[in-house]
Amino acid sequence: MAKKPMSRAIDTLKVFRDIIQLNPIKSVLPIATSAVREASNKNEFLTQVLKETGFNFKILSEREEALYSYVGAIKALQIPDVLFFDIGGGSLEIVHAEQFKIKKVISLPLGSLRLTRKFDDKKGKLTNKNLESLQRYVLNLLPSKRDLNLSDDTKLVGVGGTLRALARYEQKLSGYPLDKTHNYKIGRKSLDFTINRLAKMTSGDISKISVIGASRAETIVAGSYVIRTLMEKYDLSNLYVSNHGLREGALSIFLEDPKTYHNGNPTAEQIRSTIGIIEPRKANPEKENFLYSLSSIKLLSKRERKIFDYAEKILLSKHSFSNPQSIFYFVMDEDLPLDHDDHLILGLALVHTRHPKTSDWLFTRYKTILSQQDKISIKKISILVTLRKILERTKSKVELRLHGTRIVELIVNPSRSNHNFLLKDALRKFENAFDVKVILSIRPYQGSSQNSILEL
Prior knowledge:
alpha/beta; 22 helices; 12 strands
């Protein structure tokens, strides 16, 4: 490492040190990756860093860097079968996993800054000839598809500043209405169009693109070619972006087991545990029976059930919202392991429980992402949230029976006086959302002596 870059790095670290000292932060985990790991004078540099800033850096091995980045991304996305990559300035980390089990970990000298310096014509632009050479170089270094033994279910997942900038620019070009890159899906054709457009520009032109900026302008083309080559070589049609990576993964491993973090050798079981695969699910038997009944009579799809589960988790967090739109923006700000359309359905369904007109108005903003069937799902999830709340507060046991194909009998056995008018209103909305006729049968609760069947 040259003296000027070392000095710039130390000055930047001093800024972070001052920020930390101004805030109630007790622990800091300073980590260094390939740029420091490969430097011949790394010990001299880190000694100077410790002396001037107080930060005692841990140099991550290639394996640690890859695994921590994988943990951060997959903990947030919950995708079991992945070809994961983290493209940094100096290296490309690759992790292949099936059912969250690590199959292979690879680190290659294919960072965007390294490749830019290797193939740049020194005029602020990679020529077509240089880009062809760069692509051949990347192809030769990447392992074969046979070596990785990828299954048909494998999804390509990536992290890194280059990828996030590329995703933001692709969203800008396509007029994507949702301001969110986490779990954003990029198709190969769309990626090709975006990269070809960038390849025609100089770094000066790229620096003027607000969603990319000057800091990525010089290296984004080289990094983009690495990403495209990954998709082409392994014949993967889509790429999923994660906003979570190395930092979140290193922190998660540390919080799970500080000793493992310091030793730098997490086991497969520790990785799965950190991602959250082993956590037991606490099920409410009444809720499970109710939802299972809806699914068994084909009124609730697996997708809708999954979104409903997230809706209940958010409601259990007991956040207070002053208006319906606040609910929506709170939900959309969370990085959940949901596709963007499912995430929007979740947010709009929760708004719909409070104010259907606001939900409908917001829906029009995202109609290029959502379908009319999604609008039906929003109504179904919304009324299920409302209905479940009524049944839980009256401590009711519920049984569903299907008569024919479109008539549903709801048998309610409350343990306290039921709010019949509120329940009837909710069930009218249930009829509308699920396109069924509902017969409501109320069995006696303690203190009552008669059954009743209510017409809606």
